[in-house]
């Protein structure tokens, strides 16, 4: 960076061989140089400095969609001229921005440190610790463009080890669509959507429209999805079909694999490497059929897995039975572990008032959808301090009414990975919490882990059916939290590997059973 404001194209650094290599089109190649401070002083002195402003600029070189053999960059920096010394700065790969833009331009993350007495008025970039700067410098298209060659999609059924009961019906397992996108260079990305019906769209006309597209341009176009629509939900169903979200997820997987970086390194600064989940409980025929049996199960999860927080179904049994259930569960898990409940719209307004008053004795961290509408939640707010959550993605109404306190959605409902990050930011700005709902397979769970890793506001534990999931389409799944935690994958992209045999088994199961029918219960509210 020079005093006249010109933006200079930055070399990419190879952190393995410690060599620098020019990767922009039309530039002559540099001789390989060891990454040594003295050599950098000779070759990079004052290249990225505004001496008149007295500023130290640290540049982390990176290129969108790196060509084969070129690794994400190390950092190089130099001191103001008056300091008389150029310095090299080693920068972790997580500091590298690989996002790129629609034209595949060169990208770099830039950090600035002022020297003593620096004149901030002369600094020509608005910097907040670190930012992404983009140069209008073309890259070699033949080396860097990645093109969608094939889109495959399969409807799958993944069962739970036992069906559980909920107010609107039963939950035997998950019906989902598994997506695989392959580039012309043979790079494969995986995605998942929340509806099995999406598969037919992706192997049909919708999928065909994506073939031949530049992967980066298509990812950005799909990522501009406006997000979940507001308004009241009709019934208790929470699955939102969104076939394109599975393709967007797979394209992010491809971007990570091509860059040799885990997805969270592309999405932003990593704020956590372990992600929290609740332990789930519910009536399960053939397993836990009484309040005492459910409480004993929760005690066993504390003993075997050190589960730190719990969430479970109510709205299924008579109110007096469920109060006994909550009392026994609280005794089983102790007074300090957070305890959430989920009524799935199973109570009338009158029943909800009565139950919330009685539940106050058990230190309930949150209750999901005790009633069906936000207006009813607002009427309950004056009667209880217990926070509310909902699957209805109406952020504007939630902010205006002050209820619910949190929204509980999936990546598909938010339009994909980019849309989820935007929606989470909007929730945080509006003072509305967010966590993920349960029921994703290994691919979707991996995506959730990466998103949560970079979103500072996603500190609350997400819902989890992981302990109960009896199959998966990935080699890494089903996941099994310990101490309520899962580590963020550190492999390239999502860090998920498709298990072909498991995929075939889940596809055959769907062909035999059809999509799981979850909403078989009586009309809501039940009482």
Task: Provide structural commentary.
The chain is of the alpha/beta class. The chain folds into three domains: 12-143, no CATH class; 145-230 and 240-257, 2-Layer Sandwich (Enolase-like, domain 1); 271-504, Enolase-like C-terminal domain (TIM Barrel). Helix content is 29%, strand content 20%. The protein contains 15 helices and 18 strands. The strands form five sheets. Strands 11-12-13-14-15-16-17 form a seven-stranded parallel β-sheet, with helices on one face. It has a four-stranded antiparallel β-sheet with strand order 4-3-5-6, covered by helices on one side. α9 links the parallel β12 (310-313) and β13 (339-342). α8 runs parallel beside α9. The longest helix has 17 residues, at 243-259. The protein is globular and about 60 Å long. The model is unreliable at 1-143 (pLDDT under 50).
Helix/strand-derived class?
alpha/beta
Whole-Å distance between the termini?
Answer: 68 Å
Nearest-integer average pLDDT: 78
Q: What is the annotated CATH architecture of the largest domain?
A: Alpha-Beta Barrel
Number of beta strands: 18
Helical segment tally?
Answer: 15
Strand content is 15-25%
Mind sketching the topology for me?
Blueprint: E1 12-14, E2 19-21, H1 37-44, E3 55-63, E4 75-78, E5 106-114, E6 130-134, H2 141-144, E7 148-166, E8 169-183, E9 188-193, H3 198-202, H4 205-210, H5 215-223, H6 243-259, H7 263-267, E10 274-276, E11 279-281, H8 291-305, E12 310-313, H9 319-333, E13 339-342, H10 349-359, E14 366-368, H11 374-381, E15 388-390, H12 395-401, E16 406-409, H13 417-430, E17 433-436, H14 442-454, E18 485-487, H15 500-513
Parallel strand pairs: 11-12, 12-13, 13-14, 14-15, 15-16, 16-17
Antiparallel strand pairs: 1-2, 3-4, 3-5, 5-6, 7-8, 8-9, 10-18
Helix pairs in contact: 5-6, 8-9
């Amino acid at each position: 960076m020079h005093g006249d404001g010109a933006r200079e194209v930055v070399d990419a650094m190879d952190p393995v061989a410690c060599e620098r290599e020019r990767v922009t089109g039309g530039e002559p190649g540099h001789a390989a140089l060891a990454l040594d401070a003295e050599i950098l002083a000779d070759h990079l002195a004052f290249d990225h400095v505004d001496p008149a402003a007295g500023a130290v600029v640290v540049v982390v070189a990176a290129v969108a969609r790196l060509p084969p053999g070129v690794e994400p960059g190390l950092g190089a920096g130099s001191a103001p001229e008056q300091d008389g010394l150029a310095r090299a700065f080693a920068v972790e790969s997580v500091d590298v921005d690989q996002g790129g833009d629609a034209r595949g331009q060169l990208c770099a993350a830039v950090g600035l440190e002022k020297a003593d007495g620096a004149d901030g008025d002369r600094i020509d970039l608005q910097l907040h610790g670190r930012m992404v700067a983009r140069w209008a410098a073309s890259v070699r298209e033949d080396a860097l463009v990645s093109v969608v060659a094939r889109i495959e999609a399969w409807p799958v059924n993944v069962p739970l080890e036992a069906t559980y009961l909920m107010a609107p019906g039963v939950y035997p397992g998950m019906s989902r669509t598994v997506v695989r996108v392959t580039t012309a260079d043979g790079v494969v990305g995986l995605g998942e959507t929340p509806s099995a019906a999406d598969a037919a769209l992706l192997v049909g006309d919708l999928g065909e429209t994506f073939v031949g597209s530049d992967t980066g341009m298509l990812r950005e176009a799909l990522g501009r999805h406006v997000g979940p629509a507001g308004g009241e939900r009709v019934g208790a169903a929470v699955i939102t079909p969104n076939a394109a979200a599975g393709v967007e997820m797979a394209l992010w997987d491809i971007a990570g694999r091509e860059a040799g970086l885990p997805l969270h390194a592309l999405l932003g600064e990593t704020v956590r490497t372990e992600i929290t989940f609740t332990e789930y409980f519910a009536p399960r025929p053939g397993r836990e059929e009484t309040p005492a049996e459910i409480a004993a199960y929760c005690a066993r999860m504390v003993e075997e897995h050190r589960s730190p927080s719990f969430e479970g179904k109510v709205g299924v049994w008579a109110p007096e039975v469920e109060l006994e259930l909550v009392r026994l569960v609280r005794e089983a898990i102790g007074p300090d572990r957070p305890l959430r409940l989920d009524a799935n719209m199973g109570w009338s307004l009158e029943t909800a008032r009565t139950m919330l008053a009685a539940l106050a004795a058990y230190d309930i961290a949150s209750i999901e959808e005790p009633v069906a509408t936000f207006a009813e939640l607002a009427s309950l707010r004056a009667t209880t301090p217990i926070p509310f959550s909902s699957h209805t993605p109406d952020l504007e109404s939630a902010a205006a009414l002050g209820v619910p306190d949190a929204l509980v959605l999936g990546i598909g409902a938010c339009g994909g990975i980019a849309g989820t990050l935007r929606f989470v930011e909007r929730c945080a700005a509006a003072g509305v919490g967010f966590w993920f709902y349960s029921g994703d397979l290994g691919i979707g769970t991996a995506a959730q882990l990466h998103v949560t890793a970079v979103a500072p506001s996603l500190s609350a534990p997400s819902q989890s059916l992981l302990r109960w999931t009896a199959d998966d389409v990935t080699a890494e799944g089903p996941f099994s939290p310990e101490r309520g935690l899962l580590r963020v994958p550190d492999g390239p992209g999502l860090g998920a590997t498709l298990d072909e045999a498991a995929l075939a088994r889940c596809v055959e199961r769907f062909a035999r059973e059809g999509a799981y029918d979850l909403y078989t219960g009586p009309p809501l509210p039940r009482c």
